[in-house]
Structure formats: structure tokens, C-alpha cells
Amino acid sequence: MRVAGSYTLAVARDRAYEILQDPEVLAKCMPGTERLARIGPDEYEMKMKMVISAVQGLFDGKVRIADQKPPVQFRLIVEGSGKVGFMNGNGLLTLTPATVTTGMSIRGSDGTEVHFEGEVHVGGTIAGVGQRLLDSTAKLIIRKFFEKLSASVTSVNQAAPSS
Amino acid sequence: MIPQNFEYSAPGNLNEALALLADGNAKVLAGGMSLIPLMKLRLAAPEHLVDLGRVSDLKSIREDTGTIRIGATVTHYEIESSPLIRGKCPLLAEAASNIGDVQVRNMGTIGGSIAHADPAADYPASLIALEAQVRIVSAKGERAVPIEEFLVDSLTTALEPGEIVRDISVPLEAPGAGVSYQKMVQPASGFAIVGAAARVRRSGGKVAFVRVGITGLAAKAFRASAVEKLLEGTAGSAADVQKAAAVVADGVDANSDLYASAGYRAQMAKVHTARALTQALSRAS
Fold first, then answer.
1. Which of A47, B121, B192, B226 could join A35 in a cystine, given CB atoms 3.0 to 4.6 angstroms apart?
2. Which stretch of A60-74, A97-111, B77-91, B257-271 has the lowest confidence by average pLDDT?
3. With an 8 Å Cβ cutoff, are A133 and B43 in contact?
């Protein structure tokens, strides 16, 4: 299954690149992440508990970051498995500067457009019976991730004194 | 195929049910046409089920100042066969008659269906076209939300922990109005690949009122306002219908699966929107 899309974050590109690779931030924003631990350079182990409607699944997996070209691009490789099935995915994230207009201010501030494009494969029970819902669920999870991420960068911005 | 152990409660009235649900840990059973299969596959393993089947307050269909109030545990079959709904809100009866198969319609409930919020469920298209209101109740009180706000995302609703759907109210159809629900069915599941619900009224040779709701195409059912705008005020000719239906998928992030790619779904949405509008217009006087 192919996934693609773009979201705009209200931070400058260098900072956005940092945030997107910060395990603490990722663990907070990825829906259901219970643990994310570094096990090697650019490699993390994670435990997730996904709850979507009545369905819940525990996943153990790994996240790897590759092909880094700061602050423009990197590749995120995710694999996970649990009782209800397995998934692996691989996506290229591209960051481009964008203008964000926030609240009442007419002058736009520095922002970053994050474009992602990749492939996700899901198998096991969850894919067998949930095939009809995989696409909309994958999109839902990605949407939730970026919503939380953009909420967390906004709150960081507000906490910092602005000129 | 055997679910994990769970506790089962079957409260006899609404207050008892709400008290059992107040801590937000129990899962509501309202027909179980989606939940029970998920539990048997062990994709869902709730520790406590509260069955609303014996709560008689949730089972009524009644007329109430210009609307019909349908209790959350009214089954699809009861909606399909209710003389009141067939006579005064025929779109909903038509949608109900298109759901799944006869076993599902005998067990499945309208409240259960909308609370599950499957992106391809049949009701939401009609409920959006009807601008239905959902009354939500919890131990703390009651609130009403329009169906479009109730459906937040794929499998996600505005229900907070401890809250349940109490009833759904739909307007009485105006005399002379024409309605139609057109569905492309996914044969294995009975769900809609796409479904289009339309309501129209004519006045002075022109289309005076149009409501279109679409299910199955996107993460949640939505109102096709662009289609409505294009058709309103026209003579409602075949060309007018085609022109309006053509924009139904514009700007929509269409779902995609093994059965229907995003592009195919978008095309089928246009076809079924045109069919629904054509039939609704032919039924309007």
C-alpha cells in the first residue's frame, strides 16, 4: 500500500529536521507508543499499543533512520509485529521551507513543509480481515501523528519568548 | 474463534447502563455485528461488555415535533420496516434496507453502527443528507451534536469515554420531496464501496433544495456541498445532474483497497451520485 502526503509544521527547517529525528518527540507523537529506546546509531526499538475503535494490538518493532541529507531529507524504516499481525514500512521524508501564517499576525513566520512518500505492507490476521480498512486506518494514524507533532511544536514555540 | 474472557452486564435501564459505563473502561454492545467478530478474532479484547439490548428506553421510534427520534438500539430491520419511517423519512428506510444481509439487519442497530463509525457504513450518507442530530448521554448529562460533527474520522466519533448514543433525530421529509440511496456493494462484506444519498425538492420547474451525503469514498462520510450548489437552481435535466455529480470527488482523499483503487472509487462515486440524484428527481413532484 502506498502512502503519501504533506503537512506543514510551524518551525524552521533545521529545527523540523531535528524534531522529526528526536526519539522523545517521536515517542510522544506516534499514537500508542509505550516505549522507544535507542539500540544503535539511528536505530530504535519500540513497543506500541494501537487502539483504533474496538481493535487493539500490541506491536514490538524497530525504527531505523537512513539516507540522511540534513536538513532536506531522510528515510524512515519501520517494522513491527504482534499477535494480530505484522507491518513494515519505509518512507522518504522531504523537508522544504514554507511560510506559515499563525493566528492574527499578517506576517508569516518560518515553517516547514514535510512531504512523505512510501510503502507500507501489513500482513497477518489484521490484514486478512481488515483489508477494507487498512488504507483509511494508515491515513488516520499518519494524520494523528502530524497533528500531535504540530501541536507539540506550537506549544514549544509559545513557551519560548518571541520577538 | 473463541474470544478472550470478559465480564458481561445486561442492565435493565438507562441509568444502570450509564453507571456501569461511567468509569470509561467498559465497551458497549449494541447489536455486536462488528464487535463480536473482532472479539472472536481476538483483534478486540474488552474486559467488560455492557449489553444495551435490555434497555427499553433506547428502543423506541417516535415522532416528535417535526422530527422522528430513533432510539440507539433500534435495529436496521425495524427502521426498514417501520411505517412511520417509511412514510415520513423514506431515505433512512431505504438506507437501512441496503445494509449487509438479513441476519445483520435483524441484530445490528443504528446507534451501534454510527458509534463504530466504519468509513463505508450505509447510514452516514443518509444521515448527513438528512442533517440528523445525534443525542449523546452519559452519567454526567446529555448533549446533541449534528451527525457531521459526530463522525470525526475513520472509526472515530465525538463520543467521550462513558458516553453513549441515546437517539438519532431525522426531519420529516417535506411533501413532494424525492429521495434515493444508491450503493455499490462490496460483495464479501456487504459494506458500501461507495454510497450516495440524495434528497431533492422542486419548486416552479427548478430544483429548489438538494442534499447529498457520500459514504465509502473518504475516511468519513461527508456532505457533497459542491454538488448541491451546482444542481440547486437548475432545471434538474440529465445534463445538470451529470455536471453536478462530476465534482463529487474533487479535493477528496479517496480510500483505496484491494477491491477498489482510489481512482476507481472516485469514478464510482460520480456514477452513484448521478444515479441517486436522477432517481430522487424522478421521485420528486
1. A47
2. A97-111
3. no
Structural domains of chain A sorted by starting position, each given as residue range(s) with its CATH number in brackets: 2-22+63-157 (3.30.530.20)
Q: Does B25 touch chain A (CB under 8 A)?
A: no
Query: Top-level CATH class of B178-283?
Result: alpha beta
Q: Give a three-class secondary structure readout of chain A.
A: CEEEEEEEECCCHHHHHHHHCCHHHHHHHCCCEEEEEEEECCEEEEEEEEEECCEEEEEEEEEEEEEEECCCEEEEEEEEEECCEEEEEEEEEEEEEEEECCCCCCCCEEEEEEEEEEEEEEECHHHHHHHHHHHHHHHHHHHHHHHHHHHHHHHHHHHCCCC
For residue B111, give how far its alpha carbon lies from the nearest alpha carbon of chain A (Å): 15
A143 vs B: CB within 8 A: yes
- Which CATH architecture best describes the domain B59-171? 2-Layer Sandwich (3.30)
Model confidence pLDDT, tens digit, residues B122-139: 999 999 999 999 999 999
Complex confidence, ipTM: 0.77
pLDDT digits (tens, 9 = 90+) for B138-195: 999 999 999 999 999 999 999 999 999 999 999 999 999 999 999 999 998 899 999 9
Contact assignment for B189 to A135 by CB distance below 8 Å: no
